[in-house]
Design a protein that fits this description.
37% of the residues lie in helices and 18% in strands. With 179 residues, it is of the alpha/beta class. The protein has a seven-stranded parallel sheet with strand order 3-2-1-6-4-7-5, sandwiched between helices.
Length: 179
């Protein structure tokens, strides 16, 4: 009979995945203002082992009460920086050794599953309404998008961030030998 894992077994399973994880992931949240979206992104970031989050533009910090309600304390598990100009956030990520890729529909964006994410990468998500700013798009190393086949034009920013984080780890873990 199939049953859920006990907490000790879950910790052991997660420890196994952590051992197979070498690459660093960071995020830039440019003008993501919805506190529930910010809290959700921080929670996903903590689950996928994100090292650093740079807030850019007028992004809402995770200390906002509504963001904290969704993040459930995970903002303490990820290093984050107060909002700064987007171009400065890109520069800081690059100086820290990350390739910077926006999750954005641009003329040169490639599907996310074809992007080289199995390296130290900083993913960028933009505002809920307008995406990434032109200045940020000029400063990044590349762009990728999440393919869609439905009749909706875009994903919620927190959902898109979680999908991009999952794909980033999937690419790294796909190279692991079968155990």
């Amino acid at each position: 009979m199939r049953r859920q894992l006990r907490p000790t077994d879950v910790k052991r399973l997660n420890r196994t995945w952590r051992r197979g994880t070498e690459h660093r992931i960071a995020l830039i949240l440019e003008s993501v203002t919805g506190p529930f979206n910010v809290g959700s992104i921080f929670r996903s970031a903590a689950a996928f082992g994100v090292d650093t989050i740079w807030l850019a533009g007028n992004a809402t910090p995770p200390t906002h009460p509504k963001a904290g309600k969704t993040a459930l304390g995970t903002d303490r598990l990820v290093t984050w920086h107060e909002p700064m100009p987007a171009v400065d956030a890109v520069k800081a990520a690059r100086e820290d050794g990350y390739a910077v890729l926006a999750i954005e529909l641009t003329s040169d964006a490639q599907p996310i599953f074809r992007a080289d994410l199995a390296r130290d990468v900083c993913l960028v998500v933009g505002s809920e309404d307008h995406g990434c700013s032109p200045a940020l798009l000029d400063a990044i190393d590349g762009a990728c998008y999440i393919p869609q086949v439905g009749r909706v034009g875009s994903f919620n920013v927190a959902v898109a961030a979680a999908m991009a984080l999952a794909e980033t780890r999937r690419q790294e873990w796909a190279a692991l030998p079968d155990s």
